[in-house]
Amino acid sequence: KEHIEEVEKFKAESKEAIESFRIKYLGKKGILNDFFAEFKNVPVELKKEFGQTINKLKEAATEKVTSLKEELESKVEEKGIYGDLTRPGEIIELGARHPISIVKNQIIDIFSRIGFNVSEGPEIEDDWHNFTALNLPEYHPARDMQDTFFIQTDPDVLLRTHTSSVQVRYMEENKPPIRTISPGRVYRNEAISARSHCFFHQVEGLYIDKDVSFADLKQTLQYFTTEMFGKSKIRLRPSYFPFTEPSAEVDVYWGLNNEIDYRITKGTGWLEIMGCGMVDPNVLENCGIDSKEYSGFAFGMGIDRIALLLYQIPDIRMLSENDIRFLEQFKSTL
Ligand code: PHE
Hints:
Oligomer: single chain
Bound molecules: phenylalanine
Number of helices: 11
Helix content: 25-40%
Subunit structure: Tetramer of two alpha and two beta subunits.
Catalytic activity: tRNA(Phe) + L-phenylalanine + ATP = L-phenylalanyl-tRNA(Phe) + AMP + diphosphate + H(+)
Largest sheet: 7 strands, mixed
Order of helices and strands: HHHHHEEHEHEEHEEEHEHH
Family: Belongs to the class-II aminoacyl-tRNA synthetase family. Phe-tRNA synthetase alpha subunit type 1 subfamily.
InterPro entries: aa-tRNA-synth_II (IPR006195), aa-tRNA-synth_II/BPL/LPL (IPR045864), Phe-tRNA-synth_IIc_asu (IPR004529), Phe-tRNA_ligase_II_N (IPR004188), Phe_tRNA_ligase_alpha1_bac (IPR022911), Phenylalanyl-tRNA_Synthase (IPR002319), tRNA-bd_arm (IPR010978)
Strand content: 15-25%
GO molecular function, one term: tRNA binding
Distance between the termini: 74 Å
Shape: elongated
């Protein structure tokens, strides 16, 4: 009976105090269990009263615990959640897009406006898609230009050196007309410096249809550079790629007559930004496209280079160092 009184008077404000009260009365080794164990030793004539009393105690203790918990919870709600409305909010840190992604998205946007879709493929490639289908058979000297990383010793497992491999895959799976750009990371075994890295990013484009001409290629590139850099002059220089014939290198004029003035180039002049050409008929045939019926053009550019120019970044390695002080600076850019 004394215990019942004590239980009824008990007050607690914390979770811990309520819990130790519960253990004291209702726990395995608690007071109630002791009384229940004692029950068999109680003389028969007192059993009834004893039993009723400990049942009351049990009820009182259980009720107390429940009501204390409810009380506590309602206080937490008042204080914690709706309490101090003048407390400052928590600051949410927003991230920034990486400059490579910003430029990549811009390029995708520009080409998607003239009907190009986006295609992607694996970074680990086989010989066929990176070389042979692109008119670079085994022992072709131009393979050396590519500084390929091979995986282990298997010559058929390599890191793609360009995303032209994605174009091969796309032609194998789709019929013309084809208008696709292939952005992605590529790898070349080159000495790492401020100007070049052993991996970088490309966007390559492919257009295949009936009667596609070199004029279409040039006009498409002029459209691209104008959208990308503002009003700009371009020039095509004859060049060589095994997968295009004829091939050309594209230069953009950086300078006085141009609306853009990128100080990074140290003055004015022509700057090479991509390679291009008419897809070699052999490549079309390798990919199951009839070269008598269809023709097309292809081009490829480095995203990293363009990002360095646009944002005047002095060292290509900054793009892969993950230095937060560098990355934070792109917060205001989409
Ligand atoms: N694949 C070439 C490279 O990696 C670029 C290119 C693509 C050139 C398409 C011509 C046509 O350098």
